[in-house]
Backbone:
């Protein structure tokens, strides 16, 4: 349910191109896959369904027809990757194990999927002479620096295994771009939200978790005092950044670029706004102890991504939050 007319923005650039989307059955990946289908691309999706679901294709699989091929499998299967990337112009690497707190519990599993898996993707892309690889990087790389907004030239200060995995993968992207003929781009996502984000996990992102609680008539849980702030970014903005990066006529050479709205909202503000949207202002938050690895504040500087690939946020926080809340309600009503 994109709020964006992708053809108006991106024309025929992707028409007829074969692309691979790793993690394409997941939240962000399925939105990116949908946009690419609507832009005329032939899309191969590789996903192990550990975080994704084929139900995410339902709204567009009919119009995709034979231009959408789904393969259930892992980016840790190098042989499978090599076969799927053959003939692809672009690779959009969205596959990863998410969640900072879960990475603290399972550091080796996270390293295998997020670090070794990314190396496998790059090796497969290199062997297939892919034009460019777009990587889903993370704002968690900035750590808990008090400097705001976050600028890409700041030192990386990962506070969790997940963040460290993403920083390692960024370095790989730059190293491959500078060593081989294939170009790469690192897109540092800031708190992406929207329809299809899983609310049924103990590690659910905050907007998804709040939606589930409020719709169940429960008080949402905030870890910490709630004054931590985030640059909440509607999913169409992440899709747009990926498409712009792929289309860039200039080499990107593994450059890291922030993907966000450049606005800051506290978790307390978020809880109050969502309670209002659901007509349940009585469901005030419960507070628990802060979680290990969480950062206090997050706000992106967008100067670099504007200058490099012409990115501007398409959908602001409030414009994206209302339809997202509507989607969670429709999902619950239809369950």
Residues:
């Amino acid at each position: 349910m994109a709020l964006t007319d992708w053809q108006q923005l991106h024309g025929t650039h992707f028409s007829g191109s074969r692309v691979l989307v790793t993690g394409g059955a997941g939240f962000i990946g399925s939105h990116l896959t949908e946009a690419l289908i609507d832009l005329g691309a032939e899309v191969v999706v590789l996903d192990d369904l550990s975080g994704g679901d084929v139900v995410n294709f339902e709204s567009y699989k009919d119009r995709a027809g034979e231009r959408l091929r789904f393969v259930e499998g892992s980016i840790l299967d190098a042989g499978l990757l090599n076969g799927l990337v053959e003939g692809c112009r672009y690779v959009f690497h969205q596959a990863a194990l998410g969640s900072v707190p879960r990475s603290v519990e399972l550091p080796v599993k996270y390293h295998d999927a997020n670090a070794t898996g990314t190396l496998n993707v790059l090796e497969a892309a290199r062997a297939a002479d892919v034009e460019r690889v777009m990587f889903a990087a993370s704002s968690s790389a900035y750590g808990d620096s008090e400097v705001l907004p976050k600028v890409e030239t700041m030192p990386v200060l990962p506070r969790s295994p997940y963040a460290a995995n993403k920083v390692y993968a960024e370095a790989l992207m730059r190293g491959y771009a500078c060593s081989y003929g294939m170009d790469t781009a690192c897109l540092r996502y800031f708190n992406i939200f929207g329809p299809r984000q899983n609310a049924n996990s103990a590690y659910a992102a905050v907007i998804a978790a709040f939606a589930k609680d409020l719709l169940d008539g429960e008080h949402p849980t905030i870890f910490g005092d709630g004054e931590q702030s985030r640059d909440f970014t509607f999913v169409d903005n992440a899709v747009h950044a990926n498409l712009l990066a792929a289309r860039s006529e200039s080499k990107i050479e593994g450059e890291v670029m922030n993907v966000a709205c450049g606005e800051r909202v506290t978790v307390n503000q978020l809880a109050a706004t969502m309670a209002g949207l659901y007509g349940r202002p009585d469901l005030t938050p419960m507070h628990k102890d802060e979680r290990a690895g969480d950062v206090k504040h997050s706000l992106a500087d967008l100067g670099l991504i504007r200058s490099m690939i012409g990115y501007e946020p398409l959908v602001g926080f409030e414009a994206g939050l209302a339809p997202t809340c509507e989607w969670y309600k429709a999902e619950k009503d239809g369950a």
